[in-house]
Specification:
With 139 residues, the chain is mainly α. It has a single domain, classed as Four Helix Bundle (Hemerythrin (Met), subunit A) (Up-down Bundle), CATH 1.20.120. The chain contains four helices and no strands. The longest helix is centred in the C-terminal third of the chain and has 31 residues, at 88-118. The chain binds fe (ii) ion (FE2) (2 copies). Residues 14, 18, 50, 54, 107, 111 line the site of one fe (ii) ion.
């Protein structure tokens, strides 16, 4: 089990990608400080590729919460980029604790809701009260 808790959403594309990211993050615990910047870069690349696959998948299935989901992906990538600028104990804290928590939080909330929609547990109409107006519709 991943150090920050493996979560299976029941959507293979998401679960397999998330497991790869978990595996990379778990490697931080037995790695010397000098190797952490390269690991952070590898995690960032893996996460960026995962987000692209996940967004394409959700777009393909007309997921009604896509706009908000993509915005949250951008926030996470910005967090990862900021973390990658750190070194030593600061970067270790990011890699062992903060980044895994941010990713786990995204997977349990945003990805969990997307997975529920993909599995037919949530209907498109249920997103109407949750969705913020899209920029085009803001007068
Ligand atoms: Fe995801
Ligand atoms: Fe996501």
């Amino acid at each position: 089990m991943a150090a920050h808790g493996k979560i299976d959403l029941g959507v293979p594309l998401m679960d397999e990608d998330h497991a790869r990211i978990d595996e990379l993050l778990d490697a931080a615990r037995c790695m010397p400080d000098e190797d952490l910047p390269a690991l952070c870069a590898a995690v960032t690349m893996e996460v960026r590729e995962h987000f692209k696959r996940e967004e394409d998948f959700l777009r393909d299935r007309s997921f009604p919460g896509l706009f908000c989901h993509v915005a949250q992906h951008k926030v996470l990538l910005a967090d990862l980029t900021r973390a990658g600028a750190g070194r030593g104990a600061a970067l270790r804290r990011q890699m062992e604790s903060i980044i895994p928590q941010l990713i786990q939080s995204h997977v349990t909330t945003m990805d969990g809701m997307a997975a529920a929609f993909l599995k037919g547990e949530l209907q498109a109409s249920e997103f109407d009260i949750l969705r913020l107006p899209l920029p085009e519709s803001v007068g």
